[in-house]
Design a protein that fits this description.
Keywords: Cytochrome c-type biogenesis, Disulfide bond, Redox-active center, Signal
Radius of gyration: 16 Å
Number of strands: 7
CATH superfamily: Glutaredoxin
InterPro entries: Redoxin, Thioredoxin-like_sf, Thioredoxin_domain, Thioredoxin_ResA/DsbE_sf
Helix content: 40-55%
Distance between the termini: 49 Å
Subcellular location: Cell envelope
Number of helices: 8
Strand order of the largest sheet: 2-1-5-4-3-6-7
Strand content: 15-25%
Number of domains: 1
Organism: Reichenbachiella agarivorans
Shape: globular
Order of helices and strands: HHEEHEHHEHEHEEH
CATH class: Alpha Beta
Protein name: TlpA family protein disulfide reductase
Amino acid sequence: MKKTLIAVALFFSVQAYAQDKPAPEYLKGSVFPDSVRALSLTALDGSEVFFGEILAAHTGQKVVLDIWATWCKDCIVSLPELQQLMKDGKKNDIHFVLLSVDREEIKWREGIKKYKIKGEHFFINEGWDNALSNYIDLDWVPRYLIIDEDGKITVPKVVKVDDPTLKDNF
């Protein structure tokens, strides 16, 4: 019993630390390096696309990146708020790109359909351990980043969709 309580306490301590840990300082104002731009993704239509191509397609636009997974309870529970944020953002020409770190592409596709998640979706073929995750020090999902019209990261880490930091940067 004592070991179980210790394990539970440790789990929640790690959870709180990951959520509250700030993003690395180098992220704010940075652009994604070539190693991250070369990250291979799968689009909903099954085509391969590179992260750099997605960024290039949004040149001159403000973008919210949402890194999520279908197995992530926080991601699923926050979907109604995310969909509302997307509607609000659309009024201000804010674009949302959703990147999944699911383990299996089929689970990602099923999750989008099951939860009726609107948006521009991509599956990270390498899963959680990839160049983007390493660059941004991904330690929690959902993870939101805001990229400005010049491709610079202006908000490097938000983990709750209702965090005022997101909407305040619209």
